[in-house]
Amino acid sequence: MKILVMNCGSSSLKYQLLDMENNKVLAKGLAERIGINDSLLTHQAEGKEKVKIQRDMKNHKEAIQLVLEVLVDKEIGVIKDMKEIDAVGHRVVHGGEYFTDSVLIDDEVIKKLEDCIDLAPLHNPANIEGIKACQQIMPGVPMVAVFDTAFHQTMPDYAYIYPIPYEYYEKHRIRRYGFHGTSHKYVSMRAAEILGRPIEELKIVTCHLGNGASITAVKNGKSIDTSMGFTPLEGLAMGTRSGSIDPSIVTFLMEKEDLTAHQVVDILNKKSGVYGISGISNDFRDIENAAFNEGNKRAMLALKVFAYIAKKTIGAYAAAMGGVDAIVFTAGVGENGPEMREFILEGLEFLGFTLDKEKNRVRGKEAIISTEDSRVKVMVIPTNEEYMIAKDTEKLVKGIK
Ligand code: ADP
User: Fold this and answer.
1) 73 catalytic, yes or no?
2) Residues 275-284: what's their mean pLDDT?
């Protein structure tokens, strides 16, 4: 079975074509600047050179048309006919409380997705546009929606209800939803496989540390708490996002700096986090370079703040689960940043692990980085959201075929 995985952003579209018989990525690529000028498609077929195609893409439909064109192209393509694509898996950011798992898309599902736009105004519209465009171009091909929020729907009410008047939950569905669910699910499953133990008996803290960052407590294979909340702004300090701060700072800043609520939230989303503290960059490589090689104090402070909040969150989730068997690092910084991993783990040894500094040098590869005799295992597991989306799609589509 060949499955096309789609991840539509407001002006971009990431795709992968996977062959599920042998778990192979046949091709992958990225369409950028959709609806803006100078749109560009970067496409790479397995074992071939990357190609860049500059062509106007006015909307997602035109972008998807171009993607299919290159997939069947004689030179740079990987299939002979569009009909070889058995199903499409779409990443959807917000499934609200409707979706606790991936789902086959029909009109009813699309209605519910539209209902969730309020909860994810930046993401869901692009996701829906991508789905509708695919339906037009590939009529009859089954499509599946895989949600960032679904994995976290197992949280108990006391973890997802905010201590504000309950009527706001009833009226506006304000609660913790959590994000990066596909990634947390994938790495926790892989961790259990690598450890050779059933996930149903493990307590795992998964740390997805990229530009956006979140940590999840996965108990017996289920998410029981996660650091992102009503929106992906809550929780850890991130590349440009503040994470959790005292909500009163919002009104204070509005008054002192003569800003609107919208402007303050924009600052908390785009100008804060390690970028806001360091004043240098949201890229951890730049910040680490400034901190370690140039002695930049604010860069060092940004790293310390990031690590400290992550450390506290890991400790909190060990408490929430009544212990921990494994701590997993994934995503850009989690997979590639030995220094940051060491920063975060320093002082957490009381949980029951010793970091093997030599093994911790690993970048972008699955590895256990705690010492052999550690009761608690610390692991690096590269995330693979596309594979997870394709797997869920395959499962649901096989059910109808
Ligand atoms: P997202 O998908 O949320 O945009 P990623 O998971 O791709 O983010 O992570 C991006 C972050 O990972 C960047 O801040 C980048 O600096 C960091 N990163 C990537 N490679 C390295 C590295 N070798 N060392 C430290 N940080 C790295």
Assistant:
1) no
2) 96
- Does residue 333 have its Cβ closer than 6 Å to ligand 1? yes
Domain extent at residue 95: 2-147
Mean pLDDT of 184-191: 98
74: in domain? yes
What band does 100 get if pLDDT is binned at 50, 70 and 90? very high
Q: Over 90: is that where the pLDDT of 264 sits?
A: yes
In terms of domains, do 143 and 206 share one?
no
Q: For a pocket test of ligand 1, which of 182, 270, 285 has the largest count of ligand atoms closer than 8 A to its C-beta? A: 285
| 209 close to ligand 1 (CB < 6 Angstrom) | no
Q: Domain with 24 in it: what CATH number? A: 3.30.420.40
Q: Taking 80 as the threshold, does the pLDDT of residue 239 lie above it? A: yes
Atom number of ligand 1 nearest to Cα 287: 16
In terms of domains, do 96 and 206 share one? no
Residues 91, 155, 344, 292, CA torsion sign:
positive
Q: What is the pTM of this model?
A: 0.94
Ligand 1 proximity of 334 Cβ (cutoff 6 Å) = no
| C-alpha 207 to ligand 1 mean position (Å) | 13
The total of structural domains in the chain comes to: 2
Q: How far apart are CA 37 and CA 33, in angstroms?
A: 7
Instruction: Give the C-alpha separation, 191 to 370, whole Å.
Output: 13
Instruction: Pick the catalytic residue from 107, 148, 225, 283.
Output: 148
Q: Tell me the CA–centroid distance for residue 65 and ligand 1, in Å.
A: 30
The answer to whether residues 36 and 101 belong to one domain is yes
| Residues 43, 29 contacting (CB under 8 angstroms) | yes
pLDDT confidence tier of residue 168, bands split at 50, 70 and 90: very high
